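Hey, quick one: can you model this chain's 3D structure?
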Amino acid sequence: MPDPFALRPGETVAVLRNVRRLDGETVDLRLGDERLGDERIVDATGWLALPALGEPHAHLDKALTVDRASTRPNSLVQAVEQWHGMLPDITGPDVRDRAERALAQYAAAGVTAIRTHVDVPPDGDALRCLRAVLELRDAVADRMTVQVVPLISPATPLPVIEAAVREGADLLGGVPHLADDPAAETTRLLDVAERTGLPLDLHTDEALNLHGLDLADLAAQVLARGLQQRVTASHCVRLSLLPPERLAATLAKVAEARISVVVLPQTNLFLQGRDHRHSVPRAIAPVRMMLDAGITVAAGGDNLRDPFNAVGRGDPLETASLLVAAAHTDPREALDAVTTGVREVLGLPPAEDVADLLLVPDQSLTAVVAGPGDARVVLRAGTVLARTRVDRVTGLTLQEVP
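Sure thing. Here's the predicted structure for all 402 residues.
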């Protein structure tokens, strides 16, 4: 029987023998028909099987562009300005090339499902970025689930929004907090979602001030409409400024409206709070209180080496580690936010039910979340999607002192 690292991408696994699960039990995990032969039965002794990782909020059209711009630290407004300065030179083939390289990076980390927001530029062909990512979505559909969300700005005309829907967008997205009237922009986007039946994923309360509370308005409008499709609010860092009573009341309405929340610690910590010289607020949504309120919470990396986040490695375990450090979750909650939470937000079946798995050398849960580890084998529907091994050699072997 081969071990997991003897497998090549494209090979299908029927049974993982002697693999350990997160509950500590060692089992034979059946993924397919073991009558396929011994070569499909894998000796997983010494390996740990985890649900495959997910990325609930990416920007594939922006990925890997940071070196095209100034390397100065950016606030959100400065990052938007920098990206808009790049847009005239951003073409469909350019987006497709970078997005494909980014997907390969996510896959190697263990991601089998990803949701990406894609800009609808005000200049030239407004749908050029969207078409490029939709083409890539369809090209990799047998290997990775990619959900594509056009990122509608307040300046985007309704006919362009409708054209994006016709192109085959999976959801609708937007940035109401950048509008002069955020509530009116939320209404406009909800109108389109209600008319088309598409789910909605909005950038919400991505600011460290209390000039408004978009999430409270979104919850109120969803409840008033009785909207049935999935609604997701991403970012939500403004909620970290609310006093306990107001926060509790807001989260109760969010839970009642069945709105999921995607928290994005890395990009928010990178962009937010730069105008504070002391007592800098923590630029991360109040995850602990959201979980306690019964809200579905997922966590993502957001931007990947672009003006909105100069760093990032496309690894959800990096996000999970940040949740432990910055949001004070425990390691299991952090891992759930980048595995089961992501699949709930994306409306996908549990990873174990469809044999989407990440195999890592057997280790503690805390060690897994700390990442990145020395080896990963990624299975999508029981078929090897990627494998990575780190060859680490040091000169630090200690000699016994006589």
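One thing worth noting: The mean pLDDT is 92.
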